[in-house]
Write a structure and sequence with these properties.
alpha+beta; 60s Ribosomal Protein L30, Chain: A; Phosphoribosyl-aminoimidazole Synthetase, Chain A, domain 2; 2 domains; seven-stranded mixed beta sheet; four-stranded mixed beta sheet; 8 helices; 13 strands; globular
């Protein structure tokens, strides 16, 4: 297949995103060379990578600016889960479009994410193929890192918001319905403010990208603990499947009862407690229930 546009022309559409900023003193070598060079001023740098692929992470009717924005936002959510704020990112784009406007619209989404999340683009690459976006994000800690391995029996389990919003948003998008849920699916909000608030009081944390049950099980596994959660206490949109769908990008964290006193109960929701053992027990109407699946798996 031969296009009238070239890789060089496509890369040029990204150049306006490389601009001077408050972080310029940390960028020794920026975009344009074979690699970026960053000065971290002796601080620990937090890094994460996320890949978003068409028909797996977003539907085929997604606009290029929405693909770009969502890909950046979901990658940044991992920094929030670690108790970090973003500083830099690189983007690898695979795309099969021969229309230069597609790439220009894609950069609009990137530009909007740069403005919303105060993150700098310092490099990237583009190649031909089915649409996928690989985003590398780099940031710095608010305090100590929020790991998955610090939960202790007796601690409380909290989530930062309503679950099932991503599920409903994708359903609406597939039906071409414009709603508050489709908007949130297109523009997820990494929980940086809440991450900062809990960064020195939570014992463990994870973002809810693969479903509450699966993500909480990661905390339990790495902390060698179990959990007991109550369905009635979990803020959900529709039904029990909201617990296993994912795509919500809220935070799930554990915290001591004493430290939990500083939480605003209208913004942080206690859903259960950490227990001895290695199992997650889900109760509904005081009865133990079992789920058919625990969460999202891109290979299934």
């Amino acid at each position: 297949m031969s296009f009238l546009i070239s890789e060089k022309k496509i890369l040029k559409t990204f150049q306006h995103l490389i601009k001077q900023s408050d972080a310029e003193d940390l960028i020794i070598v920026g975009s344009g060379d074979d690699a970026a060079v960053l000065d971290t001023k002796g601080r620990n740098i937090v890094h994460s990578l996320d890949i978003s692929k068409i028909n797996t992470h977003f539907p085929s009717n997604f606009l290029p600016e929405d693909i770009a924005y969502r890909s950046v936002a979901v990658a940044l959510s991992d920094l929030a889960a670690m108790g970090a704020h973003p500083s830099f990112m690189t983007i690898g784009l695979t795309c099969d479009s021969g229309d230069l406007k597609w790439y220009e619209d894609f950069t609009t989404g990137i530009d909007n994410s740069i403005k919303d999340f105060k993150v700098e683009l310092v490099g990237g690459d583009v190649t031909f193929g089915d649409i996928s976006v690989c985003v590398n994000v780099f940031g710095f800690l608010f305090n100590e890192p929020l790991k998955r391995s610090g939960a202790i029996p007796g601690e409380k389990i909290y989530v930062t918001g309503r679950l099932g919003v991503g599920r409903q948003g994708l359903e609406d998008i597939k039906k071409n319905i414009h709603s508050e849920f489709s908007k949130k699916f297109k523009k997820p909000e990494p929980q940086f403010a809440k991450s900062k608030h809990i960064s020195n009081i939570a014992s463990s944390c994870i973002d809810i990208s693969d479903g509450l049950i699966k993500d909480l099980s990661s905390i339990c596994s790495m902390s060698n603990v179990g959990a007991s959660i109550n369905f009635e206490d979990i803020p959900i949109l529709k039904d029990i499947d909201d617990l296993t769908y994912g795509d919500d990008f809220e935070l799930c964290f554990t915290i001591s009862e004493e430290n939990s006193l500083s939480l605003d109960k209208s913004e942080y929701f206690c859903i259960g407690k950490i227990t001895e053992g290695d199992k997650i027990a889900l109760f509904k109407d005081n009865s133990l229930i079992k789920l058919e699946k625990d969460g999202w798996d891109s290979f299934k």
